[in-house]
Amino acid sequence: MEAHLIEWLNLSIRWVHMITGIAWIGASFYFVWLENNLNRVNPRDGLAGDLWAIHGGGIYHLEKYKLAPPKMPDNLHWFKWEAYFTWMSGVALLMVVYYLNPSLYLIAPGSDMAPAIAIAIGLGSLVAGYVAYHFLCDSALGKQPALLGAVLFVLLIAAAYGFSIIFSGRAAYLHVGAIIGTIMVGNVFFTIMPAQRALVKAIEENRTPDPALPAKGLLRSRHNNYFTLPVLFIMISNHFPSTYGSQYNWLILAGIAVLAVLVRHYFNTRHDSNKFAWTLPAGALGMICLAFVTGPSLKSTSPAVAKTAVIEYAPIPATAISGAKPAATTPAAPAKAPAAASAAPTQAAAGFDKVHSVIQERCTVCHSAKPTSPMFSSAPAGVMFDTPQQIQQLAAKIQAQAVATQTMPLGNITQMTQEERDLIGAWIAGGAQTN
Prior knowledge:
By secondary structure, the protein is mostly helical.
């Protein structure tokens, strides 16, 4: 029952996170688009620009003041709770998924790091990330946007590399996303909202507002806009083990982040010209290149457990699995063709028997109609290996997650050995026959 309740707690928090995240991202994208598309040609007195739009069967006229209207309206909508609830639900999800089960999801397989230390590193990185970002923005570097962006990118990828050493691949990615999310909500709470409150207060007191504060808030809002697409990728990355499960997962994240920012920049600037239209085909080509370089040639999950061997599947002798020394052999006479043909099914069956035994011992603890693991009340993602037919149908997924990237079993909780992974890989390379 506990596993069932945790699953529904996970679902509820994740749903809230998704709903509020869509609201926050949608508002961010819309207001950046609105700012970029204002008609600034001869605006009427006091306005920075205006825009006419049609949507949902109605025509709208939107105006932006240079600072504020002479008199504040009775009803003024503030955009803040979308950001706050997205961050709070995200941290809650981080705790439910990773911090309640640190040995399973958080800590790198084979690591002897204490769970409490790993959790402290994870939470501490959120605070440290925002403090470092805020310091850099307020420094002289903050006046050079391109250089600031480059420095922030290097620091975030350095964090990704460090996380990949101590955390599982999934946890490493999610903590980079959590740092970025904390920076984004920190921008709202510590910079954008105070600037807006100061603006409103100045108008209510009949003072001339300080234009520096709204300008600072607008800059941080643009930062949030560029952070959004990398964060969205990280949110879905746990479905794609060829990214977080690679030995070079931090470099893959860097590549995808660069492509995402380039594409976002095109959409942010296309009102002015199409000079950045090249980013769209470049982004598509970049994804194709990443798909190629992340092919099943490297099988390590992270530097903490890296073995940078190229996967070349060949039949593995039974002695390699059992540990026994091979017996001395002498040249044998050529076998008769009919006998060899009749022996092939028997050999295939014997090979699958070993694979079946490994999967039953290492995988069906979770991936079964009735999991024996207390962590799951039902098979994760509906994946079950109870029958030979199920194993054969899911051979490609087994290859990707248990052999190539070694992201399964989670945290290697069932202690699958390298010999067992090689055995499964050889069986799949041989056609994944069950009889």
